[in-house]
Amino acid sequence: MKWQSIVACTVLGLGIFLGDSASSQAAQVGDAAAEDVAAQLSSNYSEQQKILRKNAPVHSAAQLAAYLAAPKGSDSPLDSLSPAARARFVDSLKFNEGGVTSFYYADIESELTGSQAYALLSLFGLQGTLQFMPNVRVDSDSDRDIMRAFGSSTPGIPLPDDHNDYWCSGRATCSRNVGSICTGNC
């Protein structure tokens, strides 16, 4: 125990002796480490989104057509939208080999609860886009939990590759369109 105290005092004394230079270097190392962690988290998030979208029940125009044509034995999350909003949403869905590239979300935000929006967006692996929909209705604890988890970005963590109020107008090209989301698949 005594040798640990001596080492600690020596290190502290050295830190005091070096003054601001050591503090500045430590801050730079800390900033670089924080940036590395943020970059890793962002990369992990992007990879997770690609996997979610690729493995979603609907990730192509053909799968959407099959889903819409299937017998309506059970409730579809699409049925939570009014008929006009459902038509706008379905018509707005654009796909490429990675899944949905863009969609219109304004009706989701104005008509659905957090749980309903999560269920609908999960069909396409898009639940992460709830962060762009802060006005989704919260009527239950489940809605509150979902919006707490997905409804906002974490400070200091880079935003995902999705772009609010844009749509995918061409390969790797997001163009301004209020009420739409251009995904990282564009």
What does this protein look like?
The chain has 186 residues and is α+β, with helices and mostly antiparallel strands. The protein has one domain (1-186). The protein has helices at residues 2-18, 20-54, 61-69, 83-92, 106-111, 114-122, 141-150; strands spanning 94-96, 99-104, 163-170, 173-182. It has a four-stranded antiparallel β-sheet with strand order 1-2-4-3. β1 and β2 (99-104) form a beta hairpin. α6 (114-122) packs across α7. Mean pLDDT is 81; it is low at 1-19.
| Sheet with the most strands, sense and barrel status | 4 strands, antiparallel
Q: Could you tell me the number of beta strands?
A: 4
Mean of residue pLDDT values: 81
Strand order of the largest sheet: 1-2-4-3
Q: What low-confidence regions span 5 or more consecutive residues with pLDDT below 50?
A: 1-19
Molecular shape:
globular
Query: What is the terminal-to-terminal distance?
Result: 60 Å
- With helices defined by DSSP (H or I, 4 residues minimum), what is the helix count? 7
Share of β-strand residues: 5-15%
Structural domain count: 1
Overall helicity = 40-55%
| Oligomer status | single chain
| Series of secondary-structure elements, N-terminal to C-terminal | HHHHEEHHHEE
Structural class: alpha+beta
What's the alpha carbon Rg, rounded to whole Å? 23 Å
Briefly summarize what is shown.
52% of the residues lie in helices and 15% in strands.
